[in-house]
Amino acid sequence: MNKLHDWPEPVIRVQSLSESGLKSIPERYIKPATDRPSLNVEEDPSNMDVNIPIIDLTGLSEDGNNLPQSTMDQISLACREWGFFQVVNHGVCPGFMDQVRETWRSFFHLPMEMKQAYANSPKTYEGYGSRLGIEKGAILDWSDYYYLHYLPLTLKDYNKWPAPPDSCREVIDEYGKELVKLGGRIMKVLSISLGLKEDRLQNAFGGDNFGACLRVNFYPKCPQPELALGLSSHSDPGGLTLLLTDHQVPGLQVRKDDKWITVKPAPHAFIVNIGDQIQVLSNANYKSVEHRVIVNSDMERLSLGFFYNPKSDIPIQPMEELVSTDKPALYSPMTFDEYRLFIRLRGPKGKSQIESLHSPR
Ligand code: OGA
Ligand code: NI
Prior knowledge:
By secondary structure, this protein is α+β, with helices and mostly antiparallel strands. The protein has helices at residues 14-19, 45-48, 69-81, 94-108, 112-116, 168-193, 200-204, 276-281, 336-346, 352-356, and strands at residues 54-56, 84-88, 127-129, 144-151, 211-219, 231-234, 240-245, 252-256, 259-262, 270-274, 291-293, 301-309, 315-316, 334-335.
């Protein structure tokens, strides 16, 4: 833990670099050739029409029931094959979603001194940040971010939330309430679709003591997008992620059969993805899939990742209903606190962490 004391190098805001108008990016943002995005593959017609499944949640009740069987089947298939889907008619008001995104955009467009007041450290990562991981000399991602806790209430600290722009804290609070509600309903749907009782998955997260946090990603324009990544390949370490993106500006790519598929977000959809903790709890029935973000030279992009996580100090292991002699437990127990130390120290590294959890058999 003590290693997470401070950043290993002076922090550089990617937004400042971008706004300085440089024509070529500094070396520390240049990815090795194997990790660079092949931006022209996007023109590959075999790939153009592919998208993650879009699922209509019309009729979803508070208890996670009432969805037609065909919708439940789509969700189950999406979680097994993609680890990702988008939801529409999810009950969160579209106008409010726009307001939240634009409030955060105003934050990132504040003068740098005002943002620096919220500069974060690797100890908790809360606040305004520009890197993930503390390895000296690491190749960095082309993005800045803001990270904060909603739950548990013991970690919620308004002083670590931005005060300007006006109303920011209220908007964030309201957004948290809405997403906790939506997240809870999706947890029930996932539980049922795994063949379990509706509260089983939530109980495995620690019941009412689950955690929730927000990471707002800001991807400035990049003069050499073919050499960089906005966010390196990773799977989300937590439970369930609800992502709100800029629908005009694509950027998120999901790995599918060894290809990178660019997500085309439906207007006012949330992109939902399975995190590592649900992969573990479901004994790999549901997959936490690698994803990354590409950047571009003419538009900034903003996204809000809301992470619905297990209570951080309880052991997470495959649920016994999903373990049998034919399908033994694939993972050894670990708390989420222990688990997330890896990404906090080493930064985004594909799926190497969850693979290291495989129980020896
Ligand atoms: C994340 C993430 C994707 C995006 O924050 O974990 O994967 O589109 N974000 O910004
Ligand atoms: Ni992610």
